[in-house]
Amino acid sequence: MSYPGGSVWNVNDVEIDVLGQPYERRVIDLGHDDEGPLIATLVSRRAERPTGRAVLYVHGFVDYFFQTHLADFYVDRGWDFHAIDLRRYGRSLLPHQTPNFTTDLTEYFTELDIAAELIGAETLLVNGHSTGGLVASLWAHARRDQKMIDGLFLNSPFFDFNMSWLMRRPVLAGVARLGRRNPRRAVPRGLESLYGQSLHINYRGEWDYNLAWKPIEAFPIFAGWVGAIRTAHRQLWAGLDIPAPVLVACSTRSFRGAKWHESINVADAVLDVEHIVRYAPRLGQHVTLVRIDGGIHDLTLSGPQPRERLFTEVGRWIDAYVTPTDGGPAVGAEQADSPDRDSSPAPDAGVAAAAGAAPDQVPG
What we know:
The protein is α/β, with parallel strands linked by helices.
């Protein structure tokens, strides 16, 4: 099977996924890198009846697809659901590999290209979370002339490091330079275990997932990975040109504490949500921003009320801009207000609508 770039890749036969029926998976052979064999994994669940519509989910850092209730949401609306576990992540993490490591986010474009062709949908919506949202944004921009996607939903996308200006600019610039010489040089980990504790059922959360693939303490971070993220961030900040409608969703507040506090359950404990708001308009000409009060970093893992609000907003946006019905608003049209929605212009031009409560900081 041939894909963009002219290379030939092998895709294994369909088998039952670790989630069990009705989830299936296909392992994509990506050849070898300097560590050895390399794979990606496409997990799929079909809607009851074919509609020609499909979702491709792209996970975040220290993450993989396990959120079956997210698949339920799409399948119940008649969309086939697919999720890619990228190379060195989750199902695709092999024993000889450095978990989640990369020196160039564009290497993931290969498995995204393959996944899009395997899915073969008439209408393709890409749903990216955190680092997956950053990767999906760059991929949608790079493939804009091919018109491969019809909508992009970003759940708390990783648009900047959640650090002081001194740390995220001059200090991380030095780390990135180090990464060019020694990409596997470990650097102090910036992800605290509190977020993981707030999620997993064995600690303080309600979700059950594989801790070997998504550990509470997170995986080590390396200088080469920091450099890859900084390169991607600079491209985003300079402005992308994604032609498809984009929905960006984030919490209304960030959690700043270094010790456990119950407010971690109603805030983003990984990213500074104001960075997301600041850079969202640079994705393209049609961007909708929604802020979810009480939402956490992965908004789909929030408490019941913010989770329901998120899915309501995503469904509304899909109906309006990705698959508009006859007489519905076309792409670029002004989004209408509704009784439970506070719509106002976003900070920059090019944003279709902004919604949600005013931002706040959670005391640590």
